[in-house]
Every structure is written in C-alpha cells, then in structure tokens.
Design goal:
Largest sheet of chain B: 6 strands, mixed
Structural class of chain A: mainly alpha
Number of helices of chain A: 11
Shape of chain B: globular
Oligomer: heterodimer
Helix content of chain B: 25-40%
Largest sheet of chain A: none
Radius of gyration of chain A: 20 Å
Shape of chain A: globular
Distance between the termini of chain A: 38 Å
Order of helices and strands of chain B: EHEEHEHEHHHEHEHEEHEHEEHEH
Number of helices of chain B: 12
Strand content of chain B: 25-35%
Number of strands of chain A: 0
C-alpha cells in the first residue's frame, strides 16, 4: 500500500475524530444556533411573502409552481449552513497566526485533512439548526393555519431517496467550494476577499436568492450548466417534484460530474500551493 | 553518517516591493515589482544522532527558515538537506512522523479543547498505539507536571503551562528528533528552568536529538555542547561554547573595590569602564595576571573580582563581526 493510500484511509478514520471534536465545540455555541434558526425562519417567511405576492399577480403560469417554490425556499433556509458562502474561521485563524505550519507537520495529506475539517464545519452546524427549522416549517405552520406555506414531505419514497442522493453531492460540492476558498489563502493570507467574491456567486447562482427557474429564459442555458446549481436548485427541485423522477438521475450525475472536476482541480491547486507556501515570521 | 546533513542550502523569498505614498499605492495596484530577499545563503552543517545543538542568530538571521526546511514545511531554493536519510519536503509524510516540532510562539493544541483531548486527537493523527500513548502520557505528565491542568481548555492555560503541553504534544509519537524554535520565549525564570531541565533529560535519557533555536543564551550555555551561529543567512560559527568564548570573549572584566577614594593613573584609564564611589570596573583583553598584579601594587584594594564577559556580549561581538571566520 502506498503512503498516499495509507494517508487516505487514515484521514477517513480521523474524520470521525475531527468531526466529533468539531461538533462538540460547536455545541457550545447554542446562542449562535438559536439566532441562526430564528434568522432563517424570518428570512424564509419574508421570501415566501414576496413570492406569494408575485405569484398572485402572475399572468402566465410560472415554470415552477407555488407549492414547489415553498419547498425550495424552506429547504434553502433549513439547509443554509451547507451553502459555501463563508469559510471556516478556524482555518482563517491558522493562516493568520502561522499555525498552519503545524498542519503541514502532520503525517496526513493536507487536502484530506482539511476536507475532513471542512466537512465537519459544513455539516455540524447545519445538523444543529436543521431540526428546529424543520419543526417550524413542517409542523408549526399548519397549526397556525398556514398550510399553504408549509414544507410538505416529498411525494413518495423514491423522490426522498433521490433527494438524499442529490444532497450527498450537494454536501461534497459545498466542501469543494469551501476548500477552494481555503486554498486561495495560500496566496492571499486573508480569507475575506475571496470569501466575499464566492459569496456573491454562490448566493445568486445556486438559486438561494431567487429560484433559478424564475430567471429570464435567455439566461437558462448558462444557468443549466454552471456548478453552483448543484448546491440548491437541483436537490430542492427533486424534493418538490419539479424535476421529475426520470430526469433526477441525470441531474444527480451532473452534480457528481462537477464534484469530480472540482475535486481534481482543487487537489492539484493544493499540491501546487504546497510547493510555494511560505510561513512568515519567526 | 550524520543524522542531519545540510549542504549549500539556499532560500530566497520573493517579496513585492511597495512604493510609498498614495500615488505609490495606486501604481502598486497596476504593477508590482518583486525583489528576491535571500534568507539563507550557502548554509552547510551536519548533526549526529543524540546531539543537542543550539542554533542561534539575531532576529531575521534565517534560523526559523532553516527549521522550517528541516521540518519539511518549506522548500529551499537550492541545496540539499537530509534528515535520517530522507529529504524532508520530498518524503514529507514519512519524514514528519519521525520528527517533533515546537514553535514557541504558536501552539499546536486545539484552542477550545481540554489538553487531554488535543493529545487524543494527536494519538489518532499519528496512529500512536494505545500502550505507547499511555506510557508516554504517564512519562511526560510526570516530567512536565501536567496533571493539574490536563482537563483545562488550552485557551485558559498560562504561557508556561501551554508550553509544557506543547512539548508533550510534540513528543507523544516518539520522534527521533525534536526541533525547538524558541521554546522559552516569554517564560518566567522558574518555567525556563523547568523547560531546560526537561530538554536536558530528554536528550540524555530518551536519546532524542535536539536542535534548539533561542535568543536566551542561558538556554544555550545550560543545554548545548555545540552551537551553530548564523547571521544574514550565512554560517558564522560552528563549535562549542568554549570555542565561542575563546574566539570572541577572551577579555576579562575586573571589578575592584578600593579602600577609600582612588585616583586612577593614566595608564589604567584606558581600561576603565566605570568608576563609582570606590568601585571601578576594568576591561582587559591580554595579560590579565600582569594587570592585576600592577593594580594590587599601585592601589589600596579591599576586594577584587575577575569575570568572563556575559555570553550576551560574546554573541553580540560575534553578530557584529563581519567576517565571522569559520
């Protein structure tokens, strides 16, 4: 077994350790989680009010129905933590203090080590906020007479399974974009610049601001092929049935295709960065 | 064969040259000029297994750059470097599992976690056997007295406590060599003594090779048989502390307490450093015994003390000397 495969197997093992450690750390930030849930519910409600107003005025049938938009908006809110709009502040800290030197001292593949860190950073807070968000959107809304705005479960089990498959790709895609931001810090030291650039692209082109089917039709050919779609648009539309079961497999393949391309290119970027890295200061 | 061998090692940093003022800053946005700053120029030395070597030099001399290259973090511009038969930056994974590194100004522990959890994380990362881990934990928590704060989150530790934990963290996987980059920086006297005696016993009893950089020359005097001095990226000296003193510190200070007020003769004035009340300090570099006998004959003397110059002065003289002379 080559060293690379040993390192690979190994960091898969330590992923669980890193994950557990990170999750435990993040559990300390209960106030942040509560604030996050409240903000997301607030935003979800505002967006739905705007959407409802638009749909009430629509003269032609939009390419995505109102119940589908409701699912799109709520899933976007409860899964907001998966959107790679920010980067891991812990990695930022490592770069600023130069403690990144210690990361390079570990007998691990740096890319894999950071992928593990980032996977935890993406999933742990999301899992923490997912449950209260879902309780509100699925259970509480009908209780206060807003069935129309309720997040309904998927049509059938097949849809649910397809949605979950798509979400696996979404999580990977999100991690790859996050690691791209981390990798950029090898050149820029400060992470905020790249993060705000990424933020703009991700929020618009994933469908987080406005569901992608509602964009003008001349933009659709471009929107169809760009990778950010795999972050929200594809899984949410599979969930609501806007993407039919028979098309879903192709869409999920499309997601994994981008995952493969971006994984490979960021991995190359990292090995290139490793050669030129300079840890400053004494 | 030597455990570490470095030959003609060079490292240049490419640095953007910034222009001054607002107009300069605007030009910088459009066009950047780069400059190569040499950090290491033609450095060669060898270290054998089991040695405890001090690596000193003024700020910016290239000490940390050398350590980072030896640790496999930095790739040098040219030259060769082998540690235990491996080139650090080429066989990084294999290399780093055999070395321990402490950067005194940074911590390798997880800030939010209790110390013990950081150690357990390192256990997984280095794949340390449970038995070996237990043995080392026992050994180092005794030697470094870690027990009272092992459950405390790292952010709440004092600097001295943190440094002790960092030392243990670097040693859990039984490295063959330990690189210490300013391990005593900012520590109080007691902590420094503890760290020193720990490093000493580690080298003598556990047979760990140690390369130590520091600005605290007492560290070097206490610990190292051998000292390598660099400045401006060049090797100035490689030898024992005694060599260092012999070459740059052969003058003596003579502190004399006179009985009553003394008038210093003109011939002795040139050696005089200070004269306060009845106490004079002379500095003499040759024929010290003759100078002493002259003085005792000439003046009424109450007490007399001869000291070698402080190691600081010796090293300062070395840093300032241009040729160095290897």
């Amino acid at each position: 077994m080559s060293l690379k495969t040993v390192a690979f197997k190994h960091s898969v093992q330590i992923y669980w350790v890193v994950f557990a450690v990170r999750f435990k750390t993040l559990l300390q930030y209960r106030a942040a989680a509560i604030a996050g849930v409240i903000t997301q519910i607030f935003w979800g409600s505002i967006k739905l009010m705007i959407m409802a107003a638009f749909y009430a005025q629509a003269t032609v049938a939009p390419p995505i129905t109102f119940p589908e938009v409701v699912a799109y908006v709520w899933l976007g809110q409860v899964l907001l933590g998966l959107l790679p709009w920010n980067h891991d502040p812990e990695l930022d800290q490592l770069f600023r203090t130069g403690a990144v030197a210690y990361e390079l001292l570990r007998p691990l593949d740096l890319y894999m080590l950071w992928f593990a860190r980032i996977l935890a950073f993406r999933t742990a807070p999301t899992l923490l906020r997912l449950v209260p968000g879902l309780i509100f959107a699925m259970l509480l809304l009908p209780l206060i007479g807003l069935e129309e705005w309720q997040l309904k479960p998927p049509e059938d089990v097949v849809t649910l399974v397809l949605f979950l498959c798509s979400m696996v790709a979404t999580v990977l895609l999100s991690c790859v974009f996050t690691i791209l931001m981390a990798g950029a810090m090898f050149w820029t030291i400060e992470g905020r610049g790249v993060a705000s650039l990424m933020n703009g692209l991700v929020v618009v082109f994933s469908g987080m601001v406005i569901p992608l089917p509602l964009f003008p039709s001349w933009l659709q050919p471009f929107l169809q092929w760009q990778p950010f779609r795999g972050l929200c648009d594809i899984p949410y539309r599979i969930y609501s049935g806007n993407i039919a079961t028979d098309q879903a497999v192709a869409e999920i393949t499309f997601q994994f295709g981008w995952v493969a391309i971006l994984l490979a290119s960021t991995y190359v970027l990292f090995s290139f960065a490793r050669q030129k890295v300079v840890v400053q200061g004494g | 064969m030597a455990y570490i061998s470095i030959e003609n090692l060079e490292k240049h940093y490419r640095v953007a040259v910034r222009r001054k003022g607002i107009s300069g800053a605007l030009v910088n946005l459009a066009y950047r000029k780069h400059q190569d700053i040499p950090a290491l120029a033609d450095v060669s030395f060898e270290i054998n297994a089991g040695e405890l070597v001090g690596y000193i030099g003024p700020n910016g001399a290239g000490k940390s750059t050398t350590i980072k290259i030896l640790a496999g973090i930095l790739v040098p511009s040219s030259g060769t470097c082998e540690v235990g038969g491996l080139t650090p930056w080429k066989n990084r994974l294999q290399h780093v599992s055999r070395i321990g590194v402490v950067f005194g100004q940074r911590t390798q522990l997880w800030w939010d976690l209790p110390v013990i959890e950081s150690f357990e994380l390192l256990k997984s990362i280095y794949r340390i056997e449970t038995e070996q881990f237990a043995k080392n934990m026992h050994l180092y928590s005794e030697l470094l007295d870690l027990d009272e704060f092992i459950e405390t989150p790292v952010r709440q530790l004092s600097l001295g406590q943190r440094m002790r934990c960092d030392l243990a963290a670097a040693l859990l996987h039984d490295p063959e060599i330990l690189f210490l980059d300013e391990p005593t920086i900012g520590l109080d006297a007691v902590s420094k003594l503890n760290i020193r005696s720990f490093i000493k016993s580690l080298n003598k009893q556990q047979d760990v090779t140690v390369l130590l950089t520091t600005h605290d020359l007492d560290d070097i005097e206490e610990l190292c048989d051998r000292v390598i001095v660099i400045n401006h990226g060049r090797l100035l000296m490689d030898g024992t502390i005694a060599d260092l003193r012999a070459r740059y510190g052969n003058e003596r200070r003579i502190v004399v307490d006179f009985q009553g007020k003394a008038e210093i003769d003109e011939v002795h004035q040139e050696h005089l450093l200070t004269l306060e009340n009845n106490r004079a300090t002379f500095q003499v570099s040759t024929q010290v015994p003759r100078f002493i006998s002259e003085i005792t004959r000439r003046y009424e003397i109450h007490d007399l003390l001869v000291t070698p110059p402080p190691i600081e002065n010796v090293v300062a003289a070395l840093y300032e000397s241009q040729d160095g002379g290897i």
